Every structure is written in structure tokens, then in C-alpha cells.
Amino acid sequence: MNAMNPEGYVTADGRKIGGVLMEMKNITLRFGGVKAITDISFDIREGEIRAIIGPNGAGKSSMLNVISGFYVPQEGEVWFHGKKRAPMKPYQVAQQGIARTFQNIALFEGMSVLDNIMTGRLTLMKSGLMDQAMWWGRAQREETEHREKVEKIIDFLEIQHIRKTPVGRLPYGLKKRVELARALAAEPKLLLLDEPMAGMNVEEKEDMCRFILDVNDEFGTTITLIEHDMGVVMDLSDRVVVMDYGKKIGDGPPDEVRSNPDVINAYLGVSHD
Amino acid sequence: MAATDGLNSIPALLDRNARLFGDRPAWREKEFGIWQCWTWAEGAAEIRAIALGFLALGLNRGDHVAVIGRNRPSLYWSMVAAQMCGAVPVPLYQDAVAEEMAYVLDHCGARFVVCGDQEQVDKVLEIQDRLSNVEQIIYVDKRGMRKYDHSHMNALADVEAEGKAGHYRFDAELETRIAELDYDSTCVMLYTSGTTGKPKGVVLSNRNIIETSKNSSDFDKLRPGDDVLAYLPMAWVGDFIFSVGQAMWTGFCVNCPESAATMMTDLREIGPTYFFAPPRVFEGQLTQVMIRMEDAGRLKKRMFDHYMAVARRVGPAILDGKPVSTADRLAYWIGDKLVYGPLKNTLGFSRVRVGYTAGEAIGPEIFDFYRSLGINLKQLYGQTEASVFITQQPDGQVRSDTVGVPSPGVEVRIAENGEVFYRSPGTFMSYYKNPESTASTKDAEGWVATGDAGFFEEATGHLRIIDRAKDVGKMADGSLFAPKYVENKLKFYPNILEAVVFGNGRDRCTAFINIDLTAVGNWAERNNIAYSSYQELAGHPRVYEAIKAHVEEVNRSVAEDPMLSGCQVHRFCILHKELDADDGEMTRTRKVRRNIIEQKYADLIAGLYDGADSVYTETEVTYEDGRKGAIRATVRMMDAATVAGQRRAA
């Protein structure tokens, strides 16, 4: 495979990866005097599963927030769909086609699974407040359409049995799945997953891996994920960015990254003698 | 046979239903949160398209088509489509691991395998290099299948589309194949679960399935407009009879749940009128109800307790149409409005007209609970080789301890040794590629051995199954000896943990009893009886008195069956140690090993029969760490009163 080919490449298992979807150019992010990210550049290709790894405090989640547009870096440029992205208002952030899940699950605990997933489609709904309140005509038709889309996702993620269950009553692994469902409901071009496997047992991890691969395969969604489980990262991802202390120390296919001495040092430590 | 008017195959029945009930619902499946529905006409069109597609793929007469997956209309359709092509559907257990599947697929030589989803396809692919016979894999759910090598693989939807597109080429061939089907051609092949030895392929003809479906549908007055929930494994003969045979014969609707996990919700939504479940499903639901009632408010709890008491008293009688006083009827009517109705609705049983349970013994209290609510729950006795039905309970003659009268068209006889034999229109053709087993199970006149021992109650004509035939023996006077039957009755008392009954070839029965230390210990505490060990408690005179009362009660109950009255326990002793798997006295699944116990405690058995008051004995025991030790004890023998046989005048 040739990951540097601007036209894209073909993976070992025969998936076609397209051109550049998003490019980060020399990103630097500061919180006051603290440099969270220092001069990082990398790209995300269309249809790719791209992992960001690194030890705790390396700046991974900050990076994800830069990608989503939630943080605006002090230096550097973000190019999305071949255009330089200007700082955005929150509603614009939501409408650009990037969805995400959170490290600490952020669902509405008192609402049912179905309603939670429906909220994922909010930005796609067109009927106004009055229509919704009257619940007549367009609003009703629209709800039916959106419900259909949501049901397909429920079927896809095999959560039919908890459709009407309040999220607060669900075990952790299922909540993670519901969060993924909500992100998918927005029909994103780019899906950001912040530690999708954290705190899961082996079986739940296997399930989640399968769902991530299926999402990528079935919907062609580009996925960027942060994960600590190296086995998962190496199995899932096409290319890996490695960060340490806010700097990029490695970038490439999993095998290449695994044998990179800087990466080994960052993860296992170096002797200071 | 005139009774079925030339409707001598499932495809013929389908054709009739499409003409007669064209716009009535035939299959429903919950998908995307909505019950999708196909009428008989729509379903018949789908089935025909699949059959044409099968022909396009080169399905031959006599081929076997394996079907693996959860209950879905498309899989039922595939089975009927295979029949149309003159092939034989073979449904497999979807939870079987690849190895088990390999045996069956190899044995039946299936050329086509229809899989529900990727999981099943993966299993077949895993074993495919060892199976030269599998040529085509067809799958229903497209999810995750995109990257597979499709040179010998097709989505069912594509097969159907191809069938529709190519119908000019294959219509004539399909008509020929359908016309060739007759009453004696094979309808389906079902593999027995194979708890003993390798699974056997039971070949059932159209006659078997259609006659059985007709008789059993008439028996319970099933009709178009009935609803069943198809949730039990498709490989099980019961599902084939309920969801294909009877559904096709009467034209009722088969409802498939969304997934195994949503079955209870789907049950509530559909509210079937005809329902089958193994005892564990009923047990599970009852436990749920009881747990939730514990959490209910005090008023609701009291209302529930009060009206459940009313229901237990008069419910079954009302259900059976027996005379009940007006006051009781009124109380039951109020209870129905306040408790039973809402409860049945929650359970999904509001509309159940006929419910069946079978497979294992159901606890009388569970059985009575459902019947007292007004749910017509009945028992049946059957097996794959009989196309399910051997005996079943008619409405109004339902009890928890019988399995009913012979089903219509079924002859049942009890052999000398108590084994149950039957002969019926449903009796299987043969075991596939296994003439030896066929010959040893089915004799030249068509009688089939069930392997179970039982007897008919003289007063009611109901069959009662008592034990596996190989455990049943004879007393010295020639009467029946069924140890498990008596042991089960004894173990019904909480105080008795285990019981072993002796008497094979002897003139009377005796028993070893193991007390339940938790139950008896609890009783001892409440009655200020001091004890320091199991052995001491087991030998306590008051414990002996209590156990004696239990044994005598069991004797009275056993005496009510003239056939088994010889099995009354004349003398018993309470063992000085608990029977234990570590000592080889029981299996790991807690089944007593009769022979080993008989040898090990030969001195005690001798004492029971020679009239001694007590016997001194030393028993070797194995401790958990493997060391051996010995327990010394003097074990008391006690007489128990028995009832003279034939007490019940007819």
C-alpha cells in the first residue's frame, strides 16, 4: 500500500481508501501558557480508519476537539473537503458532517434509547418550532422519515431489545453502543470516537470492533478514533498517529508504527543514565 | 386420502391458501420496530420467486437444502420453495457450533445451505473445505457480507430477483416439479438433538406432516385468524408442525420476533391465540411476576394475594366448565377485571385459546397458576419420530401429572415392561441412511418404541409417563417397579433431598432417604432440637417421625395408581451421610447411581429386608482433598404403613 499517494490507496483486505478528507497543517494549541499540541500535521483519508494513540496527557482528546472544530488552534490550518476551515459558530460545527462519541458517555440518562438516538438527527430536521408543537403535516411526516433511519441504525447495532429502555438503566457497554448509534444517526462524513472501548470487557470490545468495522464498511464512514488498547488499534486502523507531550512522534500503518523506536520509548519509557 | 382433498403437499396447501385467504395475514416479522406483514398471496409469490431462483441455481430433485438461522419468514419460505423444487428442507439448530453442523451437513449431503446471517455463513465456510457437497451458500441478511467471495454465494433477495427475471425459462419446470409431489414424498428431514450418540435424520413424509397437522388442528379447533409466535428453534419438530404444518393446513398467521432478546416484548404485542412453550419459559414468567409483586404497593399486593387465592380455588373449575357457585363466579369475575386480565395482558396471554407445554415435567404449582388465570394451558407428549403428537390433553380434562389421551389417529399400547409404543399417521418414514436404527425403533407393523415407560389411568384413560424404560423393573409378583416415579414424589417434600427406592425383583419396596440439612435444620431450630452434625440430626427420633409421615403420604398417593401400588415403601432408613458425587454415589449432575449405592450399602439394604431394628455400619468417605476416612453409625430402620392395592373401585 502506498499511503502517500494523493489519489488514495487500497488496503490489504481490499478496501478502497480515497483522497484526503481532512488535513491538519502545523497545528499548535495553547491553553494559556500550556502547550497542549505543538506543530502537528497529518491527514485523514476518505473511508479510512485512522487512530490517534499516545500516553495519558499526550494531547489526543485536544486533537479530537480541534478536528471537530470545538477548539480553534492558535496556529495552523484545518482543511476539510479541500477547503480551509474558518472558525465556526457552534451550530456550524454541528452541521459540517462530523459526529462524535465521548470518553465519558454523554447521553440523556432519563430519556429512552430511541429518543436519545433521535436527538442525533436534530440537525437534519427541517420543520420549525411551530410545526413541531402542532404536530401536524410536515412535522409528522418528517418524524416518520427520521424514525425509519433511526430504526435502521437500531437494527444495525442490534439494540432492538432496549429500544424503549431509559438509558440510565443500561449497563456501560450498551450505553457506549447507544452513543455510537446517536453519532451515526447524524449521518456523518467523519466519525470521531474517543476511547470507544474504555472500560469494556473482552466480549464487549469484540462486539464494538465488529460494529466499527461494519460502520466503515457498510456506510463508508471515515473514522478517527482514540484508543489505549493496542491490540484493538493495530487490528482496526489503517494508519496510526502517535502523540507524546503534544508532539507527533510517529505516523503510518500499524506495523510501521509498532517498530518505531520513538513510539516504543514513549510507551515503555527510556532509561535515563 | 379423501379427507385432505388432494392437498397432499405443503406447496399444494400454500396454493389453496393463496386462493382462499389471499388477503389475510400469513407471516409477520417485526423489523425496524414495525410488524411487517405478508398476506398469503404475497407470501406465495415470494416463495414461488425463491423456488424459481433455486432452479436457476441448479437445485435438483432429491437434493437436501439446509436452513440455518433464527425464525424468519424468509427462511420458512426457503423451506417451502425447496419443497416446490422437489428438494428436501433440513432445518438446523442455529446455535450449533461449526463441528456439530459439519456432521449434519455431511450426513445429509446438502448442496444448498440457506443461512440467516453472516454468523451462520462463517460457520459453514469454516467447515466447507471438509464438506465436498456444499455448493451454494445463500444468505438472508446482507450485513457484513460485502467482502466475501461470491463465486458460490448469493443473497436470498438476489436469488429471488433472478427467479422473477428468469420465470419464463423455469415456470414449466417448476410446475412439473410441484406436480410430482405426492403424499409419500419427503416433506422435511429433522435431526434429533442427539443427546445419546450421533444425531439421526428423521425423514417425515407429506402424509406424516399433513395428517398430523389436520388431526391436531381439528383437536384444538384451530382456525384462520389464529396467531402463533414462532420463536422456538426451526430445527425442532414442534416448530415445523406449528409454524409450517398447522399454519398451512388451517391458514393461520405465523409471527416472527425481531430478535431472540425481544421475544417477551413481541409476545406481548402479538398476543398469540395458540402458544407453545417449554416449562422453563412459564417458570421464568411466573418468577418475574412474583418478584414484581414483592415490589408493589401494599394495596396492590393485598388485592393480588386475595384474588389469586380466589383464582386458585375456582379458576381451574371455571376453565373446565364445571359447576361453580354464583358467588364464586362473581368473585372470579371481579378478580378478572382487577387482576387476572391486566396480568394476562402484561404476560402476552390475553388472547391465548390453546397453550401447550411439553418436553419435561412442569411443576404443579406453576401449571395451576396459569390455569387459574383462565389460560387454557395443556400438556402433550410427543417426539420427532411421531411428528410431535402421541398424546395430548383435551379441553376440560387437564391435569399436571398426565400427558393426556392418545391424539386423534394415534394408537398407543403399553408393552409388558411398561414401555410406551405408538403407531400413527405421523410415524416417521425412516432414519436417513440408517436402516439399523430404523429397524430397531420401528417394527414391521409400524409400532414405534418411545423409550419411555408409562401407563394409562383406568378411570380417565389418560397416559402417565413414569420413567425412562430402561430404569423400570419388575417386582417379584410381576407388578411394575418404577423407582424414579416414587423418588420424585418423595423429593417433592422440602425435607427430603434425595431418595433411593429399592425393590427390583423383590416382594416389596424399601427406601434410603437423605434429609435436606437446610430445611430440616431450620425446622429443628424452631422446635428447639439440638444437634451437632448431619448424622445426629438424621438419626433423631422426631426427624424419623416427620419423614415417616411423608413416606406414608407418598404411599397413599402411589396406591391410587393400581399399576404402581406395588411400589409403596414398606421400610425406610435415613442415611447417616449425604449421597455425594465425590464418593461416586451420584453423577456430577446429581443423578443417583443406583448400582453403586446398592453395592456400597448392601448391609443396610439387607437390614431393610430382614426386619432388623437397626444396623451398625462403617462407610468409607472421600474428603474434598482426596483423603479417605470412615463414618461409623448405627442406622435405624423404620416401618411405614402402606395401603392395600386396588383401593379405588372403578
Automatic annotation (TrEMBL), chain A:
GO molecular function terms listed in the Swiss-Prot or TrEMBL record: ATP binding; ATP hydrolysis activity
GO cellular component: plasma membrane
Protein name as catalogued: ABC transporter ATP-binding protein
Positions of the ABC transporter domain: 22-270
Any single Pfam family the record assigns to this protein: ABC_tran
Gene3D superfamilies in the cross-refs: P-loop containing nucleotide triphosphate hydrolases
Keywords: ATP-binding, Nucleotide-binding, Transport
InterPro entries per UniProt: AAA+_ATPase, ABC_AA/LPS_Transport, ABC_transporter-like_ATP-bd, BCA_ABC_TP_C, P-loop_NTPase
Organism: Gemmobacter lutimaris
From TrEMBL, chain B:
Coiled coil start-end: none
InterPro entries, A to Z: AMP-binding_CS, AMP-dep_synth/lig_dom, ANL_N_sf
Name listed for the protein in its UniProt record: Long-chain fatty acid--CoA ligase
GO cellular component annotations of the record: membrane
Keywords: Fatty acid metabolism, Ligase, Lipid metabolism
PROSITE patterns tied to this protein: AMP_BINDING
Domain AMP-dependent synthetase/ligase span(s) in chain numbering: 15-432
GO molecular function, one term: long-chain fatty acid-CoA ligase activity
Highest taxon above the source species: Bacteria
A Pfam family reported for this protein in Swiss-Prot or TrEMBL: AMP-binding
SUPFAM superfamilies per the UniProt record, alphabetical: Acetyl-CoA synthetase-like
